[in-house]
Structure formats: structure tokens, C-alpha cells
Specification:
With about 450 residues, this protein is α/β, with parallel strands linked by helices. The chain has 17 helices and ten strands. About 55% of the residues lie in helices and about 10% in strands. About 35% of the residues are buried.
Amino acid sequence: MNGPSIIHLWSINHKNAPTEVREKAHIDPVAAVKLMDCLDEDPRCVSVIPVSTCNRTEVFLETPDGVDPVEPLCEGLEAAGLDPAVFLGNHALRLEGLQAVAHLFRVAAGLESMMLGEPQIAAQIKDAYRLARKHHEPGPGILRAFQGAFRAGKRVRTETKITNGAVSVAFAAVELARKFFARLSDHQALLVGAGETGALAARHFLQHSIGHLTVVNRSFDKAEELARTLNAEYQVARAKQDGPLLAAGKAVVTARPWDELGAAMAQADVILSTTGALEPVILPDMVQAAVKTRRGNPLFLLDIAVPRDIHPDVAEIGGAFTFGLDDLDEIIAGNLQARKGQIPHAERIINEEIVEFQKWLADVDLRPTVAEFRAYLEDLKDKQVGFVRKKESDEVAAAVDRSLKQFIKKVLGQSVSTLKSEESPEVREQDLAALRRMFIPQGDPSRPRPNPAGSEQDH
């Protein structure tokens, strides 16, 4: 990028678009690659990174300053098999410049999520960033913006408490279960239902070291499939954290057929039910039978299904303690309020990172010329050190090399300082042109071209 560029954003998200519009806007990885490939060849576009999750689809497009981005965007979307009208309609949020960058920072920090502070969004943005870098090199502006977003998100998650406490039903259910026992690792859980919410709750149980988890579902194949998936994920997690895997063949999660639900209840300490049944599936006689086998140990039942899975009369059985969505709503509401209290701190962090981005932006025009000037000086240094090495010892050559490195550092430092202090952009550009004319050989194929992006790193 030899001149200034602008970052544009089109966002279809849960705040401004209904589900059916978000579904039309969704960009899967195949479509994302087609979009990037199309715009990568377009001289009106510096680079593009699409981000698509269940609740948002966003296209970040970097163009040279003064270019109307709408036409290349539409051509790219059509090439990817997407409808441009969705991104240009009333349900789309359109931002550019620092507003687009600030929005990216807020999304990465979880401030724009449906569940405030949601940490998964940062990983999804990184996936989109890595996919983009795999297929083309993003422009320096969008590259710096995404790296700044990763840093802002990490700071918000580590320096505030915005991710503390459960704000999803599945997580809240597990958080409530943890209040029942001193250590979950000494107890067994039973998951009734193998749908998305149940799978999420199961993962939370495993993250908190439940001793054993049993899955019961009307479709035994689905229960077995979920058990296999959870065991594989758990093995990977243990390998990363603790080193050695579990003993060969040992499963933390097992599946049982539907007709063994009663027997599975008797062996569980906490039951989480989340089926899609229209009538209760956990009945008083089943719970009564399970309680009798437990020798006074209490049985905790969490019902997060709509309609309810647990018959209301179960609440009258001694030794059985039932909790429903109303109980979880109280936990979620309290945790969400606590997270909202962290927003001012999070926004201060984001503002600090925006200031850093602005500082980088103010000096972006310097980077290509300064990088070329550095390469020119280092090329001279290497030639001089090579000349000395032919006539003197390696120790002398090494000393000359160190001395010239310090010389280059001082020359570059003074040059950059002078360029930054120029009273107008016009004067600075004149000085940059003079620097290029006097010290940077044009069209020299023997010297590698430096990377104007400097030392930016892939996060």
C-alpha cells in the first residue's frame, strides 16, 4: 500500500437483522474464499476479510482512499453466490474508518455479543483472519486492525470480569449443580437429551471435572455419537493440560438406551434434562424408585426443557430436589448485571487500543520509505563488513558489524523523528520523496524488497 486506505464495514447482526436475514447473509468458508479471490484481483480493493457466525456476518473491506467500495463489494458477493441486496438493505450496519475499527474491537471483546462477554467470538474472528491470511496477504490497515482487535479482546477478558458467571441456560445449570457438591469429580451426572443445549451443558460438566457423565436419548445412536464426540474432546483437552491421556479405553462419558433411563437415574447424583418432548419424561414413580436405592443421598434434578421434562409432582418426593428455568433465570440475571458493571472498564481499554491504532495510522505513510531506507543502509553495512572480514579477523569484523548496527539505529531514529515532526503532510511527503530519490536505488533486483508492514505478527 503506497498511499492511504480506508476500512469499510458491512454488518448483518442480531441487533439489526432478524434470523431470516442473517441466514441469507451467512458466508461459509467456501464462499468466503471465493469472495476473497475475486476482490484480490480487483485494483479497487486492497484486501477483504469476511467474518460469519451464528449471530452476525460482517465484511471488512480495505480500499484506497477515494474509492467507492460498493461496486467491488457487490461484484465480490455475486462471485461468491451471495445476494448483495442483503448487505445494502435496511438491516445492514455500514461503518467506515475508525468507526469500523472500533466496532471490530468491541466485537472481539464480546461487547456486541448476544450474550455479553461471550469469549467464543474472539476465536471465530481469529478463524476468519487465519483463513484470509491463508489465501491472500491482507493490507497493512486491515492487518493492523485485526491484530489490535485481538489485543483489545484479550485485555478486556483478562483485565475485567466481563466473562465471569453464567449467562447461558446450559452454563447456569452446571453452575447451579456445582453448588450442590464440594467436588464434582466425586459425583456422576445424567444428561437426558442429546440436543445442542444438552451437548453444551455436557461440555461445561466436563470442564468442571464431573466424575462421570451418562447420556440417555430416545435415539441411542445420537446418544452414542455425542458420547464419542465428548470423549474425544476431553482426551484432547487433557492431553494439552496434563500431558498423559486417560487410560486406553476409559470413557468419561457413556451412552445408555432410553429404556434404561430409570436405572441411569438411580446411579446419578445430578440429572439435567433437556429433551424436546411434549410431555414430561421423568415421572414421580421413576424418581421415587431412584431415591429408594440411594440410601439417603439426595438426588438433584435440573429441568431446562420447554415444555418441562420433569413432572411437577416430583417436587413432593423426599430426597429429590428439582430446579427449573425460573431458578436459572435468577442466576443468569444476577451474573448479567455483574457483567454490565464491567462495561465502562472494558470501553476504557478499547479506547486505549483505538488510540494506539490512530498512532500507527498517523505514521503509516512513513513505513514503506523507512523500510526501503533501512534495507539500503543494511545492504551497505553488509558489504562493508564483508570487505573488513577479507582483510581482518572475525572479531574485528564482528565489532564493525555491531558499530554499524548502532549507527543505522541512530540514523533511522533521527530520520523518523524529523519526519514525524514536520508541520504539514505536504512537507513530510516532500521529505519522503527526497529520501527515496537520494538513498533508495530504484529497480535494483539484487536487493530483496522489505515488508512495509514491518514487524506485524500473526496472532
